[in-house]
Amino acid sequence: MFEQLWQDATTFGFILSDIGKFPKVDKIAIERSEVSYTSESVLPVGTTLGRLQEIISLLDYRKVSDDQEVPTRVGSYFWYEPENYASFVGVELDVYRTRRGDITVTTRSRSSRSYWDLAQQNKTIKLIRDLFGGHFRTDAGRNRYLRLEGSPPSPLASGCFLARWRFHNDLIRARIYLMARKFDPTAKDKPTGLNFLDEINPRLLSNNLLLPYFIAVWEEYFRATFAVLFKCAAKKEAVLRNARIDHTDLEQMAAGAQPVERAVAESFSFQRPSSIDKNFKLLARELEVAAVLRKPFRSRKMSLFDSIERLIDVRNEFVHTGTMDIGLFDEQLTQVSKDLEVAVNRVYEHVSKHYKSITKLFPRTFARTRS
């Protein structure tokens, strides 16, 4: 089970254990069993390794090392383009040379690749073929390029998609941790009726330690999405009037160490739903985050808005005073994870309806979640 979840996480980039709650693209990925997109280019005898390396550099690949000794491999490279949220996973490239001097180039991108990741892979294959000759093989066949489906996504669509994709990946880490951890039988998963025993229960301490992590990835989703929307916004005045940018931020922006939109987003708080709602309305008054989270949820008396606001209080109390929630057993912690997951999916869909280009370019990612 642990190995399968880890494979799902690294291969597809989505939480697949609760497949019904996730984009339809997950099911497609599973049905096709597409682990990655690969190519192999066989270059003619006499090809110069140095010239090939120059071309690889011109294609903006950087040399990397995985500390693995692979027979005949003479170089490993990686391409990733963060500008305009083009890459999701990037492209891996390896060069092999036999003792006779025969050179082979392989490329690989994972199934969760972006449109531009696959476009870069095709560009690499084509340029190497045009300059050096030889032949290549991809998953599509001999001398056939990988198929690019649909139109190129906008930075707005890619950025919003990437923010939620990373959030789901972050939840995977916590779920793997919960599956892998082990306790002594004395670490009960239910109240003992004696508070002093529950207060020294290592299971409860472990569960409380996860709260800051959950809230951190929650905040990062909204901060990243806010940065994307701000970057692509036609009107930025309201946000800039409320941003608290200091000289350190200005220095980082001037040096190119931090994008303007990220520095602006960093100046806002995205912890409480009430703060998130206020911040997003600076971008567009129609972005009603609070209203979306106050909608009924599985016939519960407390809305997602109120339950997450309370969760923030519990987190802050633990972080600042060390006071644990001694009722946070495994079932309650699982519910916390699901609440945050559904809340993020709701907001993602709400944002997509306002910025219709997201829905248009990623139609399969907006299957309604069970909420």
Describe the 3D structure:
By secondary structure, the chain is an alpha+beta fold. Helix content is 53%, strand content 10%. The chain has helices spanning 2-12, 24-32, 49-58, 115-132, 155-180, 195-198, 202-232, 237-242, 247-254, 260-266, 273-283, 289-293, 304-321, 330-354, 356-361; strands spanning 36-42, 62-64, 73-79, 91-97, 103-110, 135-138, 141-142. It has a seven-stranded antiparallel β-sheet with strand order 2-3-4-5-1-6-7, covered by helices on one side. Helix 7 (202-232) packs across helix 10, helix 7 runs parallel beside helix 11 (273-283) and helix 7 (202-232) packs parallel to helix 14 (330-354). The longest helix is centred in the middle third of the chain and has 31 residues, at 202-232. It is globular. The two termini are 26 Å apart. Mean pLDDT is 87; it is low at 1-33 and 363-371.
